[in-house]
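CHAIN AND CONFORMATION:
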Amino acid sequence: MDQPSGRSFMQVLCEKYSPENFPYRRGPGMGVHVPATPQGSPMKDRLNLPSVLVLNSCGITCAGDENEIAAFCAHVFELDLSDNKLEDWHEVSKIVSNVPHLEFLNLSSNPLSLSVLERRCAGSFAGVRKLVLNNSKASWETVHTILQELPDLEELFLCLNDYETVSCSPVCCQSLKLLHITDNNLQDWTEIRKLGIMFPSLDTLILANNNLTTIEESEDSLARLFPNLRSINLHKSGLHCWEDIDKLNSFPKLEEVKLLGIPLLQSYTTEERRKLLIARLPSIIKLNGSIVGDGEREDSERFFIRYYMEFPEEEVPFRYHELVTKYGKLEPLAVVDLRPQSSAKVEVHFQDKVEEMSIRLDQTVAELKKHLKTVVQLSTSNMLLFYLDQEAPFGPEEMKYSSRALHSYGIRDGDKIYVEPRMK
C-alpha cells in the first residue's frame, strides 16, 4: 500500500529530537537506544525523547514506520499533533496504536472532517483520558465512535467545530468529567440538554461563546440532567433573564459559575453585577474566577434586600423574601458625603468688630491674611490670627504657620477667627 505523501510523524520526530537539535534529556523523558538493523537504520542510534511530545505545526500528513514509532514512543504519555495536515484517521491510528501509554492527545486544527473514523481505528485510542479535537470539524458520528471506544475518557475538547446542534450518542459516556465546547453555534437549550443525557457524570461544562438565549427546563429536570455538575462557564452567552440565573440553583452540586459578558448584566454597574449574582446563587463559592467569602456573601445579600426594597411587589424576586426572612427588613443606608468640605462660614473678630465671612479651606494661612488685609486694615506682617473651634475646650489656637492649609485645622461653619495686631 502506498504511503501518503508529505512529512511523516517519524521523520519530524527524528528531526526535532535528534542529538544535534535536542542534545540533552529534558523533563521526565529518557534517551531511547535502538540498535542498528542488518539493513541499517535511517535514524540516529539515539534520540532524546521526553515523555511529553510537542509536534504541532510540523506539516505531518502520515505516521511513518510503525515499528520505529513503537520503539521510540513506549514511554510517551502526552502527544500534541495540533495544526498539522493529518486528514486520515487511519494514519492517526497508526501513530496512537504504537504509543501504548498515551493519556493526552491533541489533534486540533487537523483536516479530519472528511475522513470516517471506523471503530477498529478508534479502538487504538482506548487508553486516552484527555482528547482535544478543537477546530477539527469532527462530526458527531466521529465523536460517538470515539466515546464508544474510549472507556476511560475524562476530558473532551470540541471547540470551534461549527456545531449548531448536538447529536445524541446511542450510549452514555459515564467517565467524562469535563466538556469544553466553546465557540460553537449552540443557541437552543434543547441541544444543551442532550449533553446532560450523554454525559451524566459531567463535573465541568464550558459553554462560553455560544449564543445560548435561555434555559428552558424545569427545576426537577435540570437536577436529573446534570446531577454532578460542579462548574459551568456561560461567558458571552445570550442569557437575558434573571429567571435563567435562578435556574442554575437547580443543579444540586453546582459551586462555580462564570457569567461575564451576558446581555442581562449590561445595564448594571460592576458592583451591582457581582452582588446581585452572589445573592441569587446561594450555593456558589466561586464567581467569575474569584472566591466568594462569607463576608462578601452577607454584604451581597444585604445589598440585594436594599436594592429591591422600593420595587413594586410584582417585580420583587422570590429570593428577596428568602433573604428578608434571614436578615429581617433593613433600613436604607444613609447617604454620607465623604468629600472634604471646600469652604466654611466663619466669624472674623477684630477689636470690637465682628464680620461673617465665607472662606476657602484649600488656601493657606498666608493667603487668608492677604484676604483679610482690606477687612482689618492691617498688613500681613503685622497680623496675628487665632482660630477658635466652637467645640474646643482649650481656647483659641494661634495660626502661626504661613504655609499650613486651612482645612488642616478642621474649620467648620460657625467657628471663629480672631485677628490681632502684632505687638512691636
User: Anything to note?
Assistant: Residues 294-308 form the longest helix (15 residues). The domain at 7-15+47-327 is CATH 3.80.10.10 (Leucine-rich repeat, LRR (right-handed beta-alpha superhelix)). The first strand starts at residue 7 and ends at 8.
